Amino acid sequence: MQITLNINREECPLDLDPRTTLLDALRNHLGQCGTKKGCDHGQCGACTVIVNGRRINSCLTLACMHEGDEITTIEGLGAPGALSALQGAFVRYDGFQCGYCTSGQICSATAMLDELREGWPSHVTKDLTGEAALSDAEIAERMSGNLCRCSAYPNIVAAIREVAEGEG
């Protein structure tokens, strides 16, 4: 089927099998290899992208379901020499080791900070009527869909905290 996807503010026409996942469309048909295929079951978060401002696992959704949606991948968040705030913080805090999960972590954290600014509670948010305090437990809960096999979690949390506090 012929579809057009809006990837990183660019219209991308594609002719795909309707069963093609968004992840496979990005990697295999558009050359957007920053989004990683980890488990291919929606359990690790390496494939996280932002669709219409919300983070999703691109391995669990079909590309044809997202025609007309605004899709942002790690390539759309920043570029060499013009990194996003989170990308820069991940570099400063060494929020990656092997780097395989990093694109999903950064996309997820970007959307997570937007959710936090919009007042979305998490399962550990204590006060549902006020602003959520960005405790380690709050960050861990909100980022729980993204796994890091190298266990760089303390550095990931520090990078997220720096950006969140810098925005306050």
TrEMBL record:
PROSITE patterns to which the protein is assigned, alphabetical: 2FE2S_FER_1, 2FE2S_FER_2
Keyword Oxidoreductase belongs to the record: yes
CC per GO annotation: periplasmic space
Matches recorded under Pfam families: Fer2 (PF00111), Fer2_2 (PF01799)
Keyword field: 2Fe-2S, Iron, Iron-sulfur, Metal-binding, Oxidoreductase
GO molecular function: 2 iron, 2 sulfur cluster binding; metal ion binding; oxidoreductase activity, acting on the aldehyde or oxo group of donors
UniProt cross-references to SUPFAM superfamilies, sorted A to Z: 2Fe-2S ferredoxin-like (SSF54292), CO dehydrogenase ISP C-domain like (SSF47741)
Sequence ranges assigned to domain 2Fe-2S ferredoxin-type in this UniProt record: 1-77
Protein name, entry field: (2Fe-2S)-binding protein
Organism name: Roseovarius spongiae
